[in-house]
Structure prediction request, 321 residues.
Amino acid sequence: MTGGRVADWAQLLRVSAVSTVPGDALVGAVATGRDPGRGTALAAGASLCLYEAGMALNDWADREEDARERPERPLPSGRIRPAAALAAATGLTAAGLACAARAGRLPLATATALAATVWAYDLRLKHTPAGPAAMAAARSLDVLLGATATPTARTAYGERPALPRRAHGSVRPLGAAALMGAHTLAVTAVSRREAEGGAPAVPLMALGAVGAIAGLLVRQRTPLTVAAGVVYAATAGRPLAHAALNPSPPLLQRAVGGGIRAMLPLQAALAAHVSRTAGEDAAGGDAARKEPNRAAGSLSALALLGLLPVARRLSRKVSPT
Prediction:
């Protein structure tokens, strides 16, 4: 079979993990203090295309290694031709950049950096010490893509206002991007040993990172943020604890799968929190602009939490790793 069946492409593209992607754009959008709009939808579309491009390219680049360690994968088993996977990666990358271009020049520049990071990771960096950092950078750029694509009002002088800042000067989209990147860094570090097993130190460090992120979320003391933070800690922490006790391939793979699904409640917690705090800074405290942003963040958070059971069900049919 040359092109592959739908089920084969679903496995190649790891469709069970796709639900974790649009939340990056939503978090980036509400972190600007604005409601998600057309540009946010275009950013989410670009992110989905680039994510799936990375999945196809990953298996193309690893086809010889998978022939030894995972011969059941679509490429080494012959169910999908390598040329078809590479063509899919190229086409999806082009589609992602086209979506970003429709959102504007800054989103296109951000998406170009994201695409370059994805291709560099799959073709060169994955098996180097820089691999986890590259993957973390890709997730962070995904959040920033949502922020740059969300329309902002112009001032009376025709200039775009700066992104909302805290009193100490940190930019909220950057903070949200950093937390998503930190979680991705921890999960990617664990994934590097999921095929052959490893030492307990890596899942232990990842568990510590999850605990630190969850602690930051719970400290915000807003009900939806705290609830999502608790779900995040349970979704990522439990399988990581099991992997730390027994770092065998099956348990490491479960830990990676749990870490991927945990991005949904993490995004939900960030959306709920950053919409509240960004709204407080919007327009110098203009209540008319605060409330819509808070509502958008809360609705985004609830929608992301609602995707978690769907992601769990899909992961039983198609592995996210």
About this structure: Residues 287-317 form the longest helix (31 residues). The CA atoms of residues 49 and 239 lie 29 Å apart.
